[in-house]
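Purpose: get a first structural picture of the assembly so the mutagenesis plan has something to point at.
Setup: two entries, given in the order below. No constraints added.
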Amino acid sequence: TQLLEQSPQFLSIQEGENLTVYCNSSSVFSSLQWYRQEPGEGPVLLVTVVTGGEVKKLKRLTFQFGDARKDSSLHITAAQPGDTGLYLCAGSLYNAGKSTFGDGTTLTVKP
Amino acid sequence: NAGVTQTPKFQVLKTGQSMTLQCAQDMNHNSMYWYRQDPGMGLRLIYYSASEGTTDKGEVPNGYNVSRLNKREFSLRLESAAPSQTSVYFCASSDVRKSYEQYFGPGTRLTVT
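Result (C-alpha cells, whole complex):
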C-alpha cells in the first residue's frame, strides 16, 4: 500500500515557467519533508513542514502543508534548468521512527 | 565532516554470490537506515536502526540482513544475491530529536547478473 501519492510523475517545462507538484495521502502525518535528488546522487533535504496550514519559502520554492496534515504541495516560480531533478516527499507518522517516501516527480526544465 | 559515506560505489555480482554494503556517518546520529531505489518506485525502506544495538525490518527486508556495528556504522548484507536485488542502495542517518530529517549517502549501484 502506497501511503504517499505524488503527482505528476513527470513534468517537462521551459525555463521561466511556474509549476506545482503534489503529495497526497489518506494518513495524517506528524511532519512531512521534501527532498531533491540529482542523477547519481542521494536525496538532499529541502524542507520540513510540521504544522497544518504551514507555508515555507526557500528562494523560488514555496512549500505548503495541508490543514489536515494529509497533503503537501511544492510550487516553483520561474523555474531554472538548475531545478531539474527528482523531487521526493516523505511523511512521518507519530512515533514511527521512520519515514515513508512517495515515488517522486521527475522535473526537467529546458533552457 | 564527510556526512554519510558508502562503499562500494558500484558492484556487479553473479546470482548466488554474497556481499556486504558498508555505511558510516560522522554526524553522531542515533538512527540509520537502508533503502533501495528502483526506477519509478521512489525509496523503499529495507531495514533501520533507531539506536546502537537495535535493528528493525522495513518494507522490503527479505533477502537482506543488517548489522549495527557501532553508533557510526550500519552494514547491509546480501547472503545470496538475486537479479531482483539489482538496484541503487542508499544509506541514511538522522538525529534522534529530528528522526524524520534524513541525511543520505551517495548510493551503491548494484547489478546482479
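The mean pLDDT of chain A is 93.
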